[in-house]
Amino acid sequence: MANPEVGVSREEFLKELNQSSFLPDKEHIKLHSIILLEIFTLEDFPDLIKGLNKLYNNDSNQRILSQYSKIQDLKKGLENLNGFEWIQIELPFIYNSNLDSSFPMGIPQSLGDSIAICSFELHRISSNLIMMQIHVKLTPNLSDKINNIIYKEYTEDETTNYDTVVKSKLETSPEILKRIELSNLRYKLKNKLETSPEISKKKELSNLRYEIKKEIIRYISNYFRGYFIKLSKNNYSIVPSIDIYSLNYPEKNEDIIKWKTKLRRFFMCFGIPTIRTPFKSGRYILFEENIFKYSNYVIFANRGGQTKLTENIDGDIETRIDYYNFSLLAMYRLIKIYKDIINDLNVTISNEIQNLEENELNKVLKSRKEISKKIYYFKRFKIEFEQIKFKIFFDLEFESINGKKGETKLCEILFDEISEQINDIDNAINTLNQNANLILNLKNIEYSKNNQKWTMRLSIIVLLLALIQVIFAYFSFLR
Questions:
Q1: Domain boundaries in the chain?
Q2: Do the Cβ atoms of 300 and 270 come closer than 8 Å?
Q3: What does the angle CA 84 – CA 225 – CA 141 come to, to the nearest 5 degrees?
């Protein structure tokens, strides 16, 4: 029964509330794959070689004879550490032997329930930095799980009580409510919910996506453990990732802006704030999500418009994305981590002060070595970034849908962001060094004063001993 003051029944209220996060006509969204990005620094090259030896061992060599020499040359280059001639190398892919499909050029392995195919590409960023782009195509059952969550309908018990919301609003401002149109009131009711469906769906989807990512990282870490995976023990979101979905949406930028605004509650299910500008390239739109401390990304591929002319839409979506080099996103994550590390050095400096007060010099020296190592890694990255800036990575052709063509390229925005972060870290390091040096200088002054006091005391003792010796000699002479 409808509330006379509100004009909307409990059933209508819940129906509209549930459907507010649906796609039009309950369109089936497809989860194609996940791209993971991993960084190998110079210190990680031996581990990368071990991973290549383990993954492409003697058992798999017969299946990849045509690419075996390429892998051998790659390992020699890594071992010699004398730079590389290559810019990009695509490694033989792994496919799930538990599935019906088989591939003559691939290597079969048991990959569990989620992974269908796992492919690896190495991108040379510099002579000391390699990015591995891992494209993992997923099994179809995961798309069904995603859609079941999106189109799940919640009962009143799973949301805030309808009567409580209405009563609260009527008691607080009845004169205002009577002047509000029905459509506006429904909107306000939905926005006053403490636990709306899209919030619950966001939690369910993020948990599912996190578990998929965790399963993939655990498989990859059997062979490759670069910089990000080594840090991901308690937080898998630290490994940069891009989820690839497909659905229908408009082709023109102005229509896409209206589309994403209208479906803002759908995007909330994926942790995507619609106020942030997405970036478009061809049939792909890239969004930044906001769920964990380190933001990752979602790409929605368009299944409609001109793309309908393609006979195999799924295959085209999954293949064309491999032409993109996402090294800049990996570098952007790397500089974010460096910034957190440098900020944490404030705590290390505080501990140093305590150790100096307690004269724990061994601990101070150990801490100073760790600080120097962390600063060195950042300084090395800074030098290399300056060398590669504006020379490569311009194949990341995503552009803002809100700006004019050529003025809002994602690659240029990322370059500027990384440069700004480098300057911030440089300033923080300079401040830390100044404070640390000031503390050490003050401690040196303190040590000098203490040494002076001890020197004076020792001098007095020596004088007293000399005087006693003279006195003894004098009395010995009188005898």
A1: 10-25+146-197, 28-142+206-324, 329-452
A2: no
A3: 110
